[in-house]
Every structure is written in structure tokens, then in C-alpha cells.
Design goal:
- This protein has about 210 residues and is α+β, with helices and mostly antiparallel strands.
- Helix content is about 50%, strand content about 15%.
- It is built from 5 helices and 5 strands.
- Strand 3 and strand 4 form a beta hairpin.
- The longest helix has about 40 residues.
- Pfam families: PepSY_TM_like_2 (PF16357).
- This is PepSY-associated TM helix domain-containing protein.
- InterPro entries: PepSY_TM-like_2.
Length: about 210
């Protein structure tokens, strides 16, 4: 049996298998998290320089009137934070182009107020329970504010909440498999561990010695 036909040592077979697995999970997690990492990196910069990035919020106010037949639906809310009745919410949306359906209301003797915060802006609707007068306001702070709020998960809803969790798991897989790949190739790349150590020690030193 020649050297070319000798079976590979078991250790080399296992190393090749693990190397293949790490590469596979590394590129899959990179593909899943690529766009998200770009978004969070860019918004990390915009958040860090928020004071120097000017924004001009735009505010739109509208008003309307609830039909007399719908006003009795505001008479007896089930709780102090009950949402608007569905028919009232539909009427409000038609009148002021804001949808308060399903959102908790703040009920007082004279009015019901519904806050509708969202990424990059804010909105609210107020209804006079006696006269049916509808007042609304919508504020838009622009695309940079919108992306910054997505970065923070501010008022972004349940779907975005779960996206952040999935994205975070993908990033963890990406970084851990990257670290394991570094370990497997470090023997041929002497600068590997000094660079990894620098990536840890620099932010740690800033946090310990600079931040107070």
C-alpha cells in the first residue's frame, strides 16, 4: 500500500468534517444576517452622531366628527384602557386617516385619547365623548429617525420584536462559527489571536478606564 492510498488519520477526518460544518453554518448565518448587520451598523453611526444630524419633524393635524349614531358606543367602556369599539375605530380612520383599532385608549369623563406611536414618528387621536368631535395629530421625524427607532426596537411592534431575536441568534451563530474557524486556521496565521485580543481589549479598556 502506497502513501497515496493510505487511509487518512481519524483526527484529520474529524477536523475536515468540523471545518465543513463551521463553513456551512458560517455562510448560512452570514446570508441571513447580512442585511440586518448592515442596517444596524449604519444606524449605529447615525445614533452615535444623532446630535449633529438635523431633523425637521413634519406635523399634520386633522379633525372630523363622529356620526350621532356612533356616539352612544363611547358611553360605557369596559375598562379605563379599553380600545375603541370597532365601528368607532373604522369611522375615525375614514375621518382622519389614522387607524386606532385595537390600541388601548385613555378614557376620561369628557374624552377618549388613543396614542399611536410608531418608528420615526408619533400620532394620536382624541374623541369628545359628548359631541363626537375628532381631533388628530401625526408627526413624522424622517427616514433617519425611522431607522434609528428600528435599531432600538422602539414602537416597532411584535413582528419586529421577533425579527430582532432571530437576527441576534443568526449573528451569534455567525460570530461563534467565525471564531471556531479562526481557531482552526490560526496555526497558519500568526496574527489571528493578537487581532482577536485587540478586538476585546480595546473596547474593554475604554469601558474601564475612559467611561465614568
Amino acid at each position: 500500500m502506497t502513501a497515496a492510498t493510505l487511509p487518512k488519520p481519524k483526527k484529520r477526518k474529524w477536523r475536515s468534517w468540523w471545518l465543513k460544518q463551521f463553513h456551512t453554518w458560517h455562510w448560512i448565518s452570514a446570508a441571513v444576517s447580512l442585511v440586518g448587520m448592515m442596517l444596524f451598523a449604519i444606524t449605529g453611526l447615525t445614533l452615535n452622531h444623532a446630535a449633529s444630524i438635523s431633523a425637521s419633524p413634519k406635523t399634520v393635524q386633522k379633525s372630523g366628527l363622529l356620526a350621532p349614531g356612533l356616539r352612544p358606543l363611547l358611553a360605557n367602556p369596559k375598562t379605563n384602557d379599553a380600545p375603541l369599539p370597532p365601528r368607532v375605530a373604522e369611522a375615525v380612520e375614514r375621518a382622519v386617516d389614522l387607524d386606532p383599532a385595537g390600541r388601548p385608549g385613555e378614557w376620561s369623563d369628557g374624552e377618549v385619547y388613543v396614542a399611536m406611536p410608531r418608528p420615526g414618528g408619533d400620532a394620536w387621536v382624541s374623541i369628545d365623548r359628548a359631541s363626537g368631535a375628532i381631533t388628530s395629530e401625526r408627526t413624522d421625524r424622517g427616514w433617519i429617525s425611522y431607522l434609528n427607532d428600528l435599531h432600538k426596537g422602539r414602537n416597532a411592534g411584535t413582528a419586529w420584536f421577533w425579527f430582532i431575536d432571530v437576527f441576534a441568534v443568526a449573528c451569534i451563530v455567525f460570530t461563534l462559527t467565525g471564531l471556531l474557524l479562526l481557531q482552526m486556521h490560526a496555526r497558519h496565521r500568526p496574527s489571528t489571536w493578537p487581532l482577536v485580543a485587540a478586538g476585546f481589549l480595546i473596547p474593554a479598556a475604554i469601558a474601564v478606564f475612559v467611561l465614568h
